[in-house]
Amino acid sequence: MSKNKATIAASFYASMSISFWGISFVSTKAVVDTIDPYTLLVLRFAIGALFLFMVLVLKRYPLFFPLRYLPHLIVLGVLGVFVHQVIQATALITIDASAAGWMISFSPVFTVILSMIFLHEKMTFIRTAGMLLAIAGVLMVTNGGSGKGPDFVMSMGYLLMILSTLNWAVYSVLLKKLRIPLPSLVVTFYMSLVGCLLTMPFLLRSRGWEHMTLLSQGEWAHILFLGVFVSGVGYWYWGKALEVMDASKVSMFLYLEPLVTLIAAVLLLHEKILFVSILGGGIIILGVTMVNGQAISAFNHLIWRRK
């Protein structure tokens, strides 16, 4: 495959991942009022791992790997699957899905912060202005969700979403930096398996299976979507995109996620979207674009140094 075709394919994979992840906020929001986040995560990780296992068998991919890569897979599973999804599912108990979608677009700002920490990059005027704009946009979204400003519980939900963006930036760097010589499908399968095993004790402690009988057919459909397309196909395709494109370029596709979430939230959850929230989301993306535009080369250096 030529480089141009490979880039187009990688762009397609990244776009599909972002589309699934954008809708995931809506599906998670639709379920967390009935079951607790840990029960939801056990179900979606188990479904995702089973789906990926079936694909591996059909494609006849080897399931065994050198044990020296076991710590790598555990770290990726903990950060990219367990921690990331627990934080987001907990946040969505108190905040709207559309607000979560806008907040996740803040993630590329942390690419600059990582570059500054590890490469001692200087803060330019454009970067400073972009960060201030992005922060202002976040404040508009967090204060515009209810029209009156968030209370303490909602504020914690927004804080968790900000933490999830930092966690995702670290995960994307590690996924590219560790360079595990395994197909992305195999890596994604073991990550989902790790996520399922880590959340299982929480399910047992909360007796989460007792709440599963309360789920409606529509809620089960959301869980199946989260398991197959979000935990399974989404992570798999994101890994395939990172095999071809730099992490900083792939992260640019995150700008599409809030739009997908917004459309899905209006159509599926009938959320009322305030103009101030849309304006704040647009300001976030503008600020992040200003910040990330100058940081791509530095971030590439961060990922590829000592290659």
Describe this structure in words.
- Helix content is 79%, strand content 0%.
- The model is unreliable at 294-299 and 301-307 (pLDDT under 50).
- It contains 13 helices and no strands.
- The two termini are 24 Å apart.
- The longest helix is centred in the C-terminal third of the chain and has 30 residues, at 275-304.
- The protein has one domain (19-304).
- Helix 2 (37-59) crosses helix 10.
- The protein is mainly alpha-helical and 307 residues long.
- The radius of gyration is 19 Å and the shape is globular.
Main beta-sheet strand count, sense and barrel state: none
Rg over alpha carbons:
19 Å
| Beta-strand content bin | under 5%
Q: Compute the average pLDDT.
A: 79
pLDDT under 50 segments (min length 5)?
A: 294-299, 301-307
Helix fraction bin: over 70%
Q: How many DSSP H or I helices?
A: 13
Q: What is the count of β-strands?
A: 0
